[in-house]
């Protein structure tokens, strides 16, 4: 077991997910070109890059929404064959979406409960009659969900239909639903996109707290360089589908290729 | 006496309403699970009823086709199957139909607009209608699974003793009402309290989100279409017993439309209450107002009522509020 401590004393463990030589093409367009990196247990791993760099595609590869043409994905040491998104979710990889995908017609509570659907094993008649094993399960799951609701400070909107919530709160509910699944890896697709400063700060705090409190491994995509550097333990930098940098925020910040991708270089 | 006669009409209207509700239920199920108005629901009922008759009478499926292509001329296996067994077999056939619909149609339309899925169900309706004819022949069939029919003497004597006026109520209608009640209780329990029911509502709302919490769209769709097929079978049995199994059976779907507008497309209890209101309203309107406007109001009353409802409560009585953030 290789274990390191981050500067602020958190633990980073073994490699949880290993991506090797991933290539993803859409017809003639290569969205991801031969990228390898890994995600280690307990860390906050960021994927950054300019618009169109292939960050979201990368996240979609990890969560099974896209299947890469080449490359290998190992999860907890085992090679993962081509899988459907729901199968990946059942492995313990939860995600949020850049454009928020919630069940608008359901209440906040019901939305978060869907995150635990796969933990309910009681036979169907037991569930329908609300009797025996199903009742115990429902109570247990409900307790877990209430913990998450408290944690993310959304108690006052528990019964509100999600469709009525403002943007920032929707993002938080989506995070809650992903957390409810008790994921091994939590994937966040631009968790701070479109938020105002106050909402961003809240979201930052929640992401750090989740990592700290539950020890959840988090991989996130973000646009805002400043936010990423504060949040993450290690950063992958992408540009035009290639990997141009990988390391701690400090290493990445001083990488000339990264600087040129973000700021452009003067050509003599 | 006038009052008692009106009550009898009311009761008969309620019973007729139950029959409408049975059809409407199938629509609601599919709509809840996929946000799609399933145009094929009426044909599904017809197909189920045809298959049931075919199995009961021991008909050879595709008999005409076999004759035309291979020159084999057999139209009957020479046995008859008891009603209960045949219903079970037909239910299995409907599950098969559900699987085929998922594999051949829905799977290829993941993430498409509801209007595209709606168009697909129109195609499906005509395909199933043709398939039913090719499989079992286009003749008008008599369906008798052993449900009691005719005027209930018990009700007549009882009401005669109590009120001095005998109510005429069809026994088939009484059975339909009881079966509908059981069916609705089961469906409500299923969609509100079970994991599969929750998953179903989730899929209806957002495909991507449903996938991300580990729900298999494929499984949910097969499940929902199987249940819709089963509900169609029940409706097909009731209507088929009442008025014979023929093409016009698929038109009962048209009767379900105003019921859905009234009750809301997303509510199972709504389908029931909507059906009852329409059945009752139709009969009472015909009785009280009909003579003043020359009768035959039953053809249009339901639609006018539904239109009025649309103006004041577009989501129906029990439908989910339509929330639009601007």
From TrEMBL, chain A:
<keyword id="KW-0547">Nucleotide-binding</keyword>
<dbReference type="Pfam" id="PF12399">
    <property type="entry name" value="BCA_ABC_TP_C"/>
</dbReference>
<dbReference type="Pfam" id="PF00005">
    <property type="entry name" value="ABC_tran"/>
</dbReference>
<dbReference type="GO" id="GO:0005524">
    <property type="term" value="F:ATP binding"/>
</dbReference>
<dbReference type="InterPro" id="IPR003593">
    <property type="entry name" value="AAA+_ATPase"/>
</dbReference>
<dbReference type="InterPro" id="IPR027417">
    <property type="entry name" value="P-loop_NTPase"/>
</dbReference>
<keyword id="KW-0067">ATP-binding</keyword>
<dbReference type="InterPro" id="IPR051120">
    <property type="entry name" value="ABC_AA/LPS_Transport"/>
</dbReference>
<dbReference type="InterPro" id="IPR003439">
    <property type="entry name" value="ABC_transporter-like_ATP-bd"/>
</dbReference>
<protein>
    <submittedName>
        <fullName>ABC transporter ATP-binding protein</fullName>
    </submittedName>
</protein>
<dbReference type="InterPro" id="IPR032823">
    <property type="entry name" value="BCA_ABC_TP_C"/>
</dbReference>
<dbReference type="GO" id="GO:0016887">
    <property type="term" value="F:ATP hydrolysis activity"/>
</dbReference>
<feature type="domain" description="ABC transporter">
    <location>
        <begin position="17"/>
        <end position="265"/>
    </location>
</feature>
<keyword id="KW-0813">Transport</keyword>
<dbReference type="GO" id="GO:0005886">
    <property type="term" value="C:plasma membrane"/>
</dbReference>
From TrEMBL, chain B:
<dbReference type="GO" id="GO:0022857">
    <property type="term" value="F:transmembrane transporter activity"/>
</dbReference>
<dbReference type="Pfam" id="PF02653">
    <property type="entry name" value="BPD_transp_2"/>
</dbReference>
<dbReference type="GO" id="GO:0006865">
    <property type="term" value="P:amino acid transport"/>
</dbReference>
<feature type="transmembrane region" description="Helical">
    <location>
        <begin position="36"/>
        <end position="55"/>
    </location>
</feature>
<feature type="transmembrane region" description="Helical">
    <location>
        <begin position="174"/>
        <end position="194"/>
    </location>
</feature>
<feature type="transmembrane region" description="Helical">
    <location>
        <begin position="115"/>
        <end position="138"/>
    </location>
</feature>
<dbReference type="GO" id="GO:0005886">
    <property type="term" value="C:plasma membrane"/>
</dbReference>
<comment type="similarity">
    <text>Belongs to the binding-protein-dependent transport system permease family. LivHM subfamily.</text>
</comment>
<feature type="transmembrane region" description="Helical">
    <location>
        <begin position="215"/>
        <end position="239"/>
    </location>
</feature>
<feature type="transmembrane region" description="Helical">
    <location>
        <begin position="9"/>
        <end position="30"/>
    </location>
</feature>
<feature type="transmembrane region" description="Helical">
    <location>
        <begin position="259"/>
        <end position="279"/>
    </location>
</feature>
<feature type="transmembrane region" description="Helical">
    <location>
        <begin position="300"/>
        <end position="318"/>
    </location>
</feature>
<keyword id="KW-0813">Transport</keyword>
<dbReference type="InterPro" id="IPR001851">
    <property type="entry name" value="ABC_transp_permease"/>
</dbReference>
<keyword id="KW-0029">Amino-acid transport</keyword>
<protein>
    <submittedName>
        <fullName>Branched-chain amino acid ABC transporter permease</fullName>
    </submittedName>
</protein>
<dbReference type="InterPro" id="IPR052157">
    <property type="entry name" value="BCAA_transport_permease"/>
</dbReference>
<keyword id="KW-0472">Membrane</keyword>
<keyword id="KW-1003">Cell membrane</keyword>
<feature type="transmembrane region" description="Helical">
    <location>
        <begin position="85"/>
        <end position="106"/>
    </location>
</feature>
<keyword id="KW-1133">Transmembrane helix</keyword>
<keyword id="KW-0812">Transmembrane</keyword>
């Amino acid at each position: 077991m290789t274990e390191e401590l981050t500067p602020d004393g958190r633990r980073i463990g073994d490699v949880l997910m290993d991506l090797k030589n991933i290539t993803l093409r859409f017809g003639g367009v290569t969205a991801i070109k031969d990228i390898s990196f890994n995600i280690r247990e307990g860390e906050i791993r960021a994927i950054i890059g300019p618009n169109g760099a292939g960050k979201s595609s990368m996240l979609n590869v990890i969560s099974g929404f896209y299947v890469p043409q080449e490359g290998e994905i190992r999860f907890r040491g085992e090679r993962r064959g081509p899988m459907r998104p729901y199968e990946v979710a059942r492995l313990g990889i939860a995600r949020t979406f850049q454009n928020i995908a919630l069940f608008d017609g359901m209440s906040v509570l019901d939305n978060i409960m869907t995150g635990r659907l796969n933990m309910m094993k009681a036979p169907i008649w037991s569930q329908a009659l609300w009797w025996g094993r199903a009742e115990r399960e429902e109570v247990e799951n409900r307790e877990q969900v209430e913990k998450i609701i408290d944690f993310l400070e959304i108690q006052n909107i528990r019964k509100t239909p999600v469709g009525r919530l403002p943007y920032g709160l929707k993002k938080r509910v989506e995070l809650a639903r992903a957390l409810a699944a008790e994921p091994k890896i939590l994937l966040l697709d631009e968790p701070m996109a479109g938020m105002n400063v106050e909402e961003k700060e809240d979201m930052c705090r929640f992401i750090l707290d989740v990592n700290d409190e539950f020890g959840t491994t988090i991989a996130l995509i973000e646009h805002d360089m400043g936010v990423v550097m504060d949040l993450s333990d290690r950063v992958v930098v992408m540009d035009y589908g290639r990997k141009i940098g990988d390391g701690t925020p400090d290493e990445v910040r001083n990488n000339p290729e990264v600087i040129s991708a973000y700021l452009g270089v003067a050509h003599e | 006496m006038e009052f008692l006669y009106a009550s009898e009409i009311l009761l008969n209207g309620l019973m007729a309403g139950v029959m409408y509700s049975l059809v409407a239920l199938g629509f609601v199920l599919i709509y809840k699970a996929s946000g799609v108005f399933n145009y094929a629901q009426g044909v599904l009922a017809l197909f189920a009823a045809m298959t049931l008759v075919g199995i009961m009478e021991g008909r050879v499926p595709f008999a005409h086709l076999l004759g035309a292509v291979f020159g084999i001329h057999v139209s009957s296996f020479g046995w008859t199957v008891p009603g209960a067994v045949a219903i079970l077999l037909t239910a299995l056939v409907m599950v098969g139909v559900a699987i085929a619909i998922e594999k051949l149609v829905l799977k290829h339309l993941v993430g498409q607009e509801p209007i595209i899925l709606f168009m697909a169900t129109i195609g499906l309706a005509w395909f199933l209608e043709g398939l039913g004819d090719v499989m079992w022949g286009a003749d008008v069939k008599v369906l008798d699974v052993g449900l009691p029919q005719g005027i209930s003497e018990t009700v007549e004597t009882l009401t005669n003793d109590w009120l001095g006026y005998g109510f005429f109520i069809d026994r088939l209608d009484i059975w339909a009402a009881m079966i509908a009640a059981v069916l609705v209780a089961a469906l409500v329990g299923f969609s509100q309290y079970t994991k599969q029911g929750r998953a179903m509502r989730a899929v209806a709302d957002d495909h991507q989100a449903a996938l991300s919490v580990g729900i298999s769209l494929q499984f949910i769709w097969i499940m929902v279409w199987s249940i819709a097929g089963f509900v169609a079978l029940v409706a097909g049995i009731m209507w088929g017993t009442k008025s014979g199994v023929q093409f016009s059976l698929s038109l009962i779907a048209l009767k379900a439309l105003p019921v859905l507008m009234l009750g809301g497309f997303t509510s199972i209890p709504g389908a029931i209450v909507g059906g009852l209101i329409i059945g009752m309203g139709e009969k009472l309107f015909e009785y009280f107002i009909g003579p003043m406007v020359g009768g035959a109001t039953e053809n249009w009353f339901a639609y006018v009522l539904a239109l009025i409802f649309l103006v004041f409560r577009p989501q129906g009585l029990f439908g989910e509020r339509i929330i639009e953030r601007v």
